[in-house]
Amino acid sequence: MKNLFEAGKLLLLDMASTFFFLVLYLLTHNITLSVALGMALGIGQIGWQFARKRPIDTMQWMSLFLVLVLGSGAATLITNDPRFVMVKPSVIYTIVGIVMLKPGWMNRYLPPVAIELVPDIAFIFGFVWAGLMFFSAALNLIVALNFSVVAWSAFMSIWAIVSKAVLFLIGFATMRTIGVRRRRAQMATAAS
User: Fold this and answer.
1) Of 14, 53, 57, 107, which residue is least crowded by CB atoms under 10 Å?
2) CA dihedral 120, 123, 125, 130 (to 10 degrees)
């Protein structure tokens, strides 16, 4: 259970600024405030890791890059047009999906025993996660271009949380079940 919570904590931290933006927007309906504070949180997370001299994961750098360089947050603040923020998750999901095509990216989220026993299953789930990101990018674009900001933020907030939580739990249960079977088989082989 400890491994589940540790992996979940890392996943939530990687997605914190997105969740923060969406929750804040749902509560306040203030796009400017939500974007500004979401950007501040993302920058603050990287700054905290940097100040503590801790390694900054590829996805964290990518998130900061998207916020600062692509400037959809800044574009929303300047133009007061929420479509920049509404389409931005599609860009992010696509880039994250591309990053997730790198074999072994899931190792950051796995305990050593999982890396030992189920590296092949983690490899497969890495690609399943990439597929979820590409699907989410397409879904977000459809919803962003066809629905209001409120409908988009409510739907995509629920989708973001539920789809990732379900895939996370399926992946965890699958790797754990297969890992336990493999460990038992190793022990039976060693005993004979």
Assistant:
1) 53
2) -160
State pTM to two decimals: 0.68
What is the rounded CA–CA span in Å between residue 138 and residue 186?
43
Count other C-beta atoms under 10 Å from residue 82's C-beta.
19
The position carrying tokens 């933020």 is 153
CA distances to 39, 66, 133 from 90, in Å: 17, 12, 9
**What residue type is 81 in one-letter code?**
D
Residue 180: both structure tokens together: 């336990």
The burial class, CB within 10 Å (0-12 / 13-18 / 19+), for 52 is exposed
At 27, the amino acid letter reads: L
Q: What six digits make up the tokens of 70?
A: 């692509």
> What amino acid occupies position 25?
Y
Work out the pLDDT band at 2, boundaries 50, 70, 90.
Answer: low
Task: Please compute, for residue 146, the number of CA atoms within 13 A of its CA located in the half-sphere on the CB side.
Answer: 8
Residue 14 is which amino acid?
D
Q: Are 122 and 114 in contact (CB under 8 A)?
A: yes
* Residue in 40, 48, 47 with CA at minimum distance from that of residue 17: 40
Q: Which two tokens stand for residue 154?
A: 């409510």
